[in-house]
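protien #1 (seq + structre)
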Amino acid sequence: MIEEEAIVLSMPEYLFMIIDFEKEIEGNDSMISIEHKDFLFTSVKEYIIPAEKVAHVQEGNNAEHALLVLTKTGYSSIPVLDAKDHLKGLLSMRTVTDSILGLAHIEYERLPELKVDEIMRKEIDTLKTTDTFQKGLDYLIDHPFICVTEEDGTFAGILTRRVLLKQFKKYIYNVQ
C-alpha cells in the first residue's frame, strides 16, 4: 500500500496563492486573474441580505408556527430573534421534527406546546458586520449561510454562500 502525503490548504491560503496567477482559458482569449486581494478585506456588510428580507421566528413562538414558517419559505433553517431583534440561535426543520418524534409515532400534538427557545440551536457561528469577506469565506465553506449581527448583537442579516461565490467570481474574471 502506497501512502501519499496530501497538502491541504485553507481557502484563504489558496486564494493568496492565485492572487497574481493568470491562466489563459483554452479556446478563449479571456484571462482569469485576481489582480488585487483588497476585496478579501472588505466588510461583509456590503454583501449581506438585510434582516428585513430574511424569514425568521421569535424565541417565544411555538414549534407549530416555526414549522409553518420553515415549510412556507422552503428554507432548511432560519434565525431565531428575541423581542429586540437580537440573534439568539437557529432553528431547522430537522430540529423541529426531532423534537416531536416519539417511540411509536410522530407526536404532532406537541407542536403548539413546544417553544422555539426550547428546541433551537443556541451555539452557532456568526459574523459581525465589521468582519471581512475573507472571514465570511472561511465560515461559508461549512455553512450555506451565516448570520451577521451588529456589534450589539442585533440581527443585521445573512451572508450566503451564493452571494459570496458570485462576488468571488466577479473578482476572478475582473468583471466590474
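ok now protien #2
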Amino acid sequence: MQNIFKAGITVFLSMLFAMPPLYAKSPKDYFDSGYSHHLSGRYESAEKYYTKAIRKNPSYTQAYLMRGAVYHSRREYQLALNDYTKSIETGADHFKAVAYYNRGLVLFDTGNYKAAIKDFSNALSYSPKMANAYLHRGIAKGRAGNSAGQLRDFTTAARLGDFELKKLLQQHAPHLLK
C-alpha cells in the first residue's frame, strides 16, 4: 500500500512539474498588454510587453510592427528599421504592406528619400489602394527632385480617398483630377 502511495505521489509530482505554470502568459497576452500601454502613451512598458511577446514567439509579426512603431515614435530609427525589416521577413502579405510603409516613413524621416520611395513602392505592390503610401511616396519624390512623379502620386492618393489632398488639388490644380 505504501509503495502504491509513493508511486502515486511520484506520478503526481512529475506531472505537476512537467506542466507549464498556470500564470504563464501567451505571446498574444503580452502583445495585448503592450498594445494597451501603447495606446495610452506608455511606450516604455509597451516596448517591454512587445519584447516579451517576441521572446515567446520570435515570428510574431504584429509585435515587431508595433515595437517598431514605439521605436519610431522615440526616434530610435535603427531599432525601428530592424523591427520593420523583421516584419517583412516573417509576415504575411497584408503585414508586409504595412511594414514596408512604416519602414518607408522611417527612411523618409532620416532623409533617405530614394530608399523611402522604394519601400513605399513595395508597400503598394502588396496593397495598391493604400492612399497614404502614394501620398508619402509623392512627398519623397518631391524631396528627391521628381516633381512629375510627385504630382502623379498626389493625384492617385486623392483619387483613392485622401480628401484633404483632393481638396488642395481641386483648388490649385483641378486639371490633375480629370
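The chain has ten helices and no strands.
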